[in-house]
Structure formats: structure tokens, C-alpha cells
Design goal:
The chain is built from 20 helices and no strands. By secondary structure, it is an all-alpha fold. It is 72% helix and 0% strand.
Length: 316
């Protein structure tokens, strides 16, 4: 597999040297924000962790605290996000989504629908270590009904393996019978098929569904379910079809509404920069006719904008 991130490990990496560059950027009157953002967006997350350790060894204090005292606003939040180990970053975002005032369902849905089973297991471990609490228990305390059930299934991180040719047609028919084919909706059936079958298998089921019903599975979900369950099912289906296309749409929505949803913009740019940012850019350009780069340019400003553009990695 070719590497599809926009941020890659810096080749001649020297943690001690980078720690000194950052130290100098923060020393004395004023802060050299350019030096900070150019350095940190050009290092992988793993390298940033090594810079943190080198800084602490040389200066006897935490690099993140030093950065926070020098920076402010959205730019500060973005830099702190970049300095957080990626699994812990997801865990922290989920914790905040559950433990903040009200539940931020968009964050729960985005992370749990898009991460792989292995990533979810790592997030659960990091969550427990950081917050001395079980993610599943906290999610259940804040959600209910069929929505909660599907979140719990996704938290198991255990999809079936491979494609079961014998089940494709049956699953498509079951989904049709559970929704468009009857009065009312059998949500359980949607949840069990969409939550547990393998990605490859579901892609074939969705194709079969379209042949059978003449419409996309998304249309059926929109017509048959509402609220958080609808949003979660749609997110899972979109991620099954294409994770980068799902994120391209989330990014577009974060910027192309009245006011920018900076927390979503930042979360996606940070968490996908070493995963599939190049694919997200392709999907964005294909779907919206504008590049992600120019869209970010039009929607943001200052050092925050500069750092986001470096994470984007180029104009298409």
C-alpha cells in the first residue's frame, strides 16, 4: 500500500535539535509562530513525541505547557492537538464528547464509524488509562435505544471476516424487508447487518440492495430512521463505501455553512494527516469541484490557517 498521508516522518530527524529550535522560537520577547508551525507540521506524530521528551530533558519542563503559555486561540488548540499521541487524541475527543455539557453525538459518530477494529481497541485502552473509566460504560451512560446498541456493537471492534457469497442476496433482501418493504422499520435488522458484517461483504450487499430496490441504502436509511440512529447508520454506510469520501464530506460541511465548525475541521485535519489526507483531497476535489486547500484558505486565517494548509499538504 502506498503511503497516503500528507505528513510523513521527517528524514533527517533530530529530536534534540528540534527541541532547541522550539525553545528559541519561544524565548525572549514575542514568539516565532512560523518556526513552531513549520517545524511541527513537518514531523510525524511519533517524532513529535520524541521532541517532547528531548525538550523536557534539556529544559526540565513540559513542551506542551510552554507552547500553551506562548500561543492562543485556535492556533494553540491545533498545536496542542498535533502534540497529542494519535490514539490518546481520539480517546480525549470521545471523553470530551461524553463528559462535556450534553453529548456531542457528531464526535461519537465520526470517530466510532470511521476507525478500524484495531484502532477502536487501542482507543479503549488509552481511554481507560487516561480517564480511569470504561469507554463503553460512559457511552452507555450518555446514549439510549437503538443508537446506543449500534455504538456498543462498533465498540466491540469485531466485524466478521471476508465475504459470505451465500449471504449477500439474503442480507440485501432482509434490509429491504426491514425498511422499505414494510410499514414501520425493523431497526434491529439494520443494526445487526450494518454493524457486524465485513466491509467487503457490505459493499456487495449495498450493490445488491440497489439492484433489488432501485435506490441506495442511504435513501432507505434516511426514509426509515431519524435522529442519532439515522446519522450513525449513514456514517457507517459512508465509511464502508469510502472513508476518505466520508471525511471529505465532513470537511466540506465544517466550512461551507454559516460560520466554520473549527473543532471538526481541526479534528479531521489532525487525525487524518498521516492516514489518508491525499485521498480525502482527491474525493473533495471530485465531489465539490474546489480544492480542500483553497476552501481552507477562504475559511480560516492567520497562523491557524497556515498550519492547516501545511497539514493539507498542497493544492489540487
Amino acid at each position: 500500500m502506498a503511503y497516503r498521508g500528507s505528513v510523513r516522518p521527517y528524514v533527517n530527524f533530530d529530536a534534540k535539535h528540534d527541541a532547541e529550535v522550539l525553545h528559541r522560537a519561544m524565548k525572549g520577547i514575542g514568539t516565532d509562530e512560523d518556526a513552531i508551525l513549520m517545524l511541527l507540521t513537518a514531523r510525524s506524530n511519533d517524532q513529535r513525541q520524541q521532541i517532547k521528551a528531548a525538550y523536557k530533558k534539556a529544559h526540565g519542563k513540559e513542551l506542551v505547557s510552554a507552547l500553551k503559555s506562548e500561543l492562543g486561540g485556535l492556533f494553540e488548540s491545533l498545536i496542542v492537538a498535533l502534540m497529542t499521541p494519535s490514539v490518546l487524541y481520539d480517546a480525549t475527543k470521545l471523553h470530551k464528547a461524553i463528559k462535556g455539557a450534553g453529548t456531542d453525538d457528531d464526535v461519537l459518530i465520526e470517530i466510532l464509524a470511521s476507525r478500524t477494529g484495531e484502532q477502536i481497541k487501542d482507543i479503549i485502552k488509552a481511554y481507560k488509562k487516561e480517564f480511569s473509566s470504561k469507554l463503553e460504560k460512559d457511552v452507555c451512560g450518555d446514549t439510549s435505544g437503538h443508537y446506543q446498541k449500534l455504538l456498543v456493537i462498533l465498540l466491540q471492534g469485531k466485524r466478521e471476516e471476508g465475504v459470505d457469497e451465500g449471504k449477500i442476496e439474503k442480507d440485501a433482501k432482509d434490509l429491504y424487508a426491514a425498511g422499505e418493504g414494510k410499514l414501520g422499520t425493523d431497526e434491529e435488522k439494520f443494526i445487526s447487518i450494518i454493524g457486524t458484517r465485513s466491509i467487503e461483504h457490505l459493499r456487495k450487499v449495498f450493490d445488491a440492495y440497489k439492484k433489488l430496490s432501485g435506490s441506495d441504502i442511504e435513501d432507505s436509511i434516511e426514509g426509515e430512521t431519524t435522529g442519532n440512529l439515522e446519522n450513525l447508520l449513514l456514517a457507517v454506510v459512508k465509511c464502508v463505501k469510502s472513508v476518505p469520501a466520508f471525511f471529505a464530506e465532513c470537511l466540506y460541511k465544517s466550512m461551507r455553512r454559516a460560520g466554520t465548525d473549527d473543532s471538526t475541521l481541526m479534528r479531521i485535519m489532525v487525525s487524518r494527516s498521516e492516514v489518508d489526507m491525499l485521498d480525502i483531497r482527491d474525493c473533495f476535489k471530485k465531489k465539490y469541484g474546489a480544492s480542500l486547500y483553497t476552501t481552507i484558505q477562504e475559511d480560516t486565517a492567520g497562523d491557524y490557517q497556515k498550519a492547516l494548509l501545511y497539514l493539507c499538504g498542497g493544492n489540487d
